[in-house]
Structures are given as structure tokens and as C-alpha cells.
Amino acid sequence: MIPHGRTAPHRRAVLASGLASGLVSGLVSGLACAMLPAAGSRAQAEPGAPSLAALAAKKGILFGMAVTAEQVGLMPPLAAIAVREAALLVPGVELKWSEVEPEPGRFAFADADRLAELGRRHGLALRGHTLLWHEALPAWVAATNRDAMPAVLRRHIREICRHYAGRVQSWDVVNEAIQPGPDRSDGLRRTPFLETLGDSYIERAFDLAAETDPAAILTLNEYDLERDTPWQAQRRQAMLNLLNRLVRRKVPVRALGIQGHLDARRGPLDPEIFRRFIRDVASLGLEVYITELDVIDRDLPADIARRDAEAARAAQAYLTAALAEPAVRMVVTWGVSDARNWVDGNPDMRRTDGLPSRPHLYDDAFRPKPLRAAVADAFRAAPVRPAP
Ligand code: G3I
After folding, report:
1. Who's near 21: CB < 8 A, 6+ residues apart?
2. Is the N or C terminus of the chain more exposed, i.e. has fewer CB atoms within 10 Å?
């Protein structure tokens, strides 16, 4: 979405020191910690309240949460919330190219495997994010020439999909492929994959993933598709053109992921425009997932009660529109708790007044916020999906 500082070695160092001190080992390796509920259990956010996964499931919607190995390792309460609220986990950073294949042909699955194991032990599905993205890309990939790129791409996708074959509900095959500009009429983003392989890199990636893990639902994942602005209208059109082309060519794409980082600065939301776009996607025979829901609160009031109320209202309006469309079959939040949240780690996204961001459903002391209630209310109000 926007460039992030690459400090993965530091993250590894934190994890490694946590492991060395025994802080992380109980949870992250094994993840059989007594602090977590027993496999399959669904403890409640408040006494008597059903989990978000249960509320969503009643309507035929899969509810998931993104977590990182670092968060889970350092914050046992966060892991406990994720396994009781969600029916699906998404590794938030561990499957990106820079993490999973930092050097040519050297695959590092340990962190993602720990999260996959956490989910498996608690009966949660696993979603893969992401096979191809122009960010979190090692310099050696960006420097690969057109002769070498086909083999580099094949090895990357095959190795990862083979490792998780049969265990992944869905894969974000290509993340953020759209960026309309004056130089290309198709609106595709200029990435090292596009520059070396042309627009066929997208179908090549989908074909490789489908061959290696035929059970996974393969998706394109994208941001800035829902708001009522000329820029986002242009992006919607570019995405529809791309999806049309892929479907016509029988590329095995089955869903569009709409990220859903809610940010007032990005323009107003007209529910009808958003819903029409979802219907246009559905008319191609595709499902729609909301894949990275959170609230970028940089323009919201400093006062916490007012800020949380506005964030909750924004999420409820967004989900009410999206969930009115039966094609929307999944909602994933891009985090669990405000503690160590990604927004504060991103200088372009965090608040300028120095206050901590509050993008997620639980606060930094792991208490449910109005945002959680808004998501729960949206699931309660959603129509039941017809069986697929
Ligand atoms: O873990 C270290 C931490 O120990 C250290 O203190 C900190 C200092 O900067 O860095 C931490 O690592 C960061 C990591 O997030 C923490 O989880 C990396 O630098 C940072 O690059 C990484 O950023 C992630 C980013 O994707 C790039 O991978 C964000 O967490 C993650 O939320 C973000 O997710 C993207 C989706 O993949 C695609 N859509 C947009 C979304 C938000 O930008």
C-alpha cells in the first residue's frame, strides 16, 4: 500500500531473544500454552456473547484475523483473543517474499509454520498472504532479469504452495496489481514482474498456484476500490477490466480481496457505489472477501471515546454496505489489538499528534472496543448467504 521500513532482521532478533529467554517459546513453538483455550473452543468476548466467528458463520461468512509471529510470541492475550474470536488466521508478514525466501532458493517457513500450527491446534483455517507483491521484495528479486524471472517466480510459488498444500483456505496470489497511470492503458502497476514478464505474469502466477495447490481459493487482493472519488473509480474500472480479462482466459481466480483499511482521508463512502462494484465483480462468477479491515485513525479526534465512536461508525457503515451483497463471504481484520499495531510502525499512516493509533477491535490492554461491537452488529444485521 505504501512503502514500509524493512527491519525484518531486527524483528527476528526480537523473536530470537524472546525464544532464548523462554518468553516466546511456550507460545510460538508448540503454542500449546495453557493460557490459550482448548482446541475448538470459542470463549466469549463478554460473558454470554458469541464470538465474531460464530456471529459471522450464522450468516455464511468466514471471519478471520491477521496476526504476526512476533505479536503472538510477545503477547499471549492477543493470541488468546485471535483463537477465540476468529475462524481463520492470516500470517501478517511471514509469507511475504522478503520473509519466506530472503535469498534465492532459501526458504524460511518457521515463523509462518508456527502461526499455521497455532491455527490448526484451535481448529482455525489458514489464509496465505501473499505470493507476489511489489513491497517486501528482496533486492535480488527486483534485480532479476527477464530471462531468469520465469524460473525465479516458478520456484517461489511452487515451493510455498507445495509447503502449505491442502492446508490453505485461500491464497492472495497477487497483491496490489493495480495502479492506474498515464503510461499504461490497462492500469496495471509497474512492478519487477510486469517489467520482466509483461501482463501475463498474473495468469502465470495463478496457474502455478492452482497446479500446486488445487484446493486453495486463489484471489487477487487490492486497496482503494470502494470510495466515491475519481481516483478510486479509475481503480475500480482497471480492476474490473483485469478480472474480466482473467475470467475470459479461464485463469483460476475465484475471489477478489478488498483490503478495507478505512481512512476518512481517502474520500467519502457511497454505499451504492461500493455495492455496485461488488455486484460487478460477482457478475463475473467471483466471490468477494474483505481482507484487511481496520481503521486508520490519523484524522479522527484525539479524545479516545470520540475517536473510538467514530471508528466504530465508519466500520459499521462500511460492513453494512459490503455485507448486504451476498458475494461477500469473508471478513478478515488486519490485526487484533492496538498493542504493537502496524499503523504506528508506518510513518505515513500514524497520527501526527504523537498519540498511539487505535486501528483494531481490541485496545492495547486487550479489552474489546466499540469497533468490536460494530463488527458484531454488522454480522448480526447481515443477510444469510445462500449456500455456495
Ligand atoms: O518486527 C519489527 C520490530 O521488532 C521493530 O521494532 C520494528 C521497527 O520498525 O520493525 C518491525 O518489523 C516490521 C513489521 O511490519 C512488524 O510486524 C517491518 O519493519 C515492517 O516492514 C512490517 O510492515 C508490514 C508491511 O505490510 C510490510 O510487510 C506491516 O506490519 C503489515 O501490516 C503490512 O501489511 C500490508 C499488507 O501486507 C498489504 N496491504 C497493506 C498492509 C498495510 O500496509
Report:
1. none
2. C
What pLDDT, on the 0 to 100 scale, is given for residue 49? 86
**Residue of the nearest CA to atom 6 in ligand 1?**
11
* Span 25-42, pLDDT tens digits: 334 333 333 334 333 333
> Whole-prediction pTM value?
0.91
- What is the distance, to the nearest Å, from the Cα of residue 106 to the centroid of all Cα atoms in its chain? 24
Using alpha carbons, list the distances in angstroms from residue 185 to 1, 100, 133, 178, 188: 21, 33, 21, 11, 8
Over residues 244-281, the pLDDT tens digits come to 999 999 999 999 999 999 999 999 999 999 999 999 99
**What is the C-alpha separation between 31 and 20, in angstroms, rounded?**
16
Helix (H) or strand (E) holding 234: helix 230-248
Q: Is 135 exposed, middle or buried (0-12, 13-18, 19+ CB in 10 A)?
A: middle
Ligand 1 center to residue 3 CA distance, Å? 10
